[in-house]
Write a structure and sequence with these properties.
Number of helices: 10
Largest sheet: 7 strands, mixed
Radius of gyration: 17 Å
Number of strands: 7
Structural class: alpha/beta
Shape: globular
Strand content: 5-15%
Length: 254
């Protein structure tokens, strides 16, 4: 089972779109794919028309005490798409930082839970909250690769330096290599700002950057409104083709 975590401490950069798109593309290939929502905002959960405020079980329950912790298979919900399953996020995740951060071993909770599903799935994609804390630590500890969507916008670039430094410090706590891929997102070739940002990324992160940006594509918004991947509506769209190329490279690097 291959696990990819998608992270950025800045919101609105395309994390959920990246998780949905890559997950759906893998599922199209016949891979058994699990999407795990660790964001208290529940964007990934909402994408598939599940309510993050629901009292139904979700990823929050992975962090319950061992004696009451459910088996992760009981948390699975269907997305309505073949080969694509979801463990939804709940807003209760926001309480974990205060309640559990000081408890020993909590950083491995997700990793341990996913081991129980290792025979059931080929790929897991984890959507993370836009902040550094217990949930992101769990996502990094479980992951084989970190995917960092970076909006091609000056403000997003200015926060990237601090974020990568923080992630590097967190990496040291998991005591193993964790390769990452920076993915330029929301690229608008008509604007000088997007062009300059992409040039900066290529100059400053040549070995970590996926050089082919994900373009601005209104089809992503329309697909999200319907709760389906963009490929279900317009498989020839520029945005979908961009993610398709990215997925092929990520698989080659796995």
């Amino acid at each position: 089972m291959v696990i990819w975590s998608v992270a950025n401490q800045k919101g609105g950069v395309g994390k959920t779109t990246t998780v949905v798109s890559l997950g759906a593309l893998l599922a199209e290939q016949g891979k058994r794919v699990l999407l795990l929502d660790l964001d208290p905002q529940g964007s990934l959960t909402s994408y598939f028309k599940d309510d993050p405020e629901s009292p139904q079980p979700g990823s929050y329950h992975l962090f319950q005490p061992p004696e009451t912790r459910p088996h992760p298979v009981s948390l699975l919900t269907e997305t309505g798409l073949p080969n694509l399953t979801l463990i939804p996020g709940r807003t209760a995740l926001a309480t974990l930082e205060k309640n559990l951060t000081r408890q020993a071993g909590m950083g491995q909770t997700v990793s341990q839970a996913l081991k129980l599903l290792s025979n059931d799935y080929d790929h897991v994609l984890i959507d993370t909250p836009p902040l550094i804390g217990l949930l992101l630590i769990n996502a990094l500890a479980a992951a084989h690769r970190l995917i960092i969507p970076v909006q091609t916008d000056p403000m997003a670039l200015s926060s990237l330096l601090g974020m990568t430094a923080t992630l590097n410090r967190l990496r040291s706590s998991i005591h193993r290599p964790l390769p990452d891929t920076l993915v330029p997102t929301l690229f608008d070739p008509r604007t000088r700002s997007s062009q300059l940002c992409l040039q900066s990324l290529k100059r400053d992160y040549p070995d970590r950057l996926w050089p082919h940006p994900i373009p601005v594509d209104t089809g992503f918004r329309d697909a999200a409104r319907l709760g389906v991947p963009l490929g279900d509506r317009n498989p020839e769209s520029q945005g979908w083709q961009a993610y398709k190329a990215l997925m092929k490279q990520l698989l080659a690097d796995s």
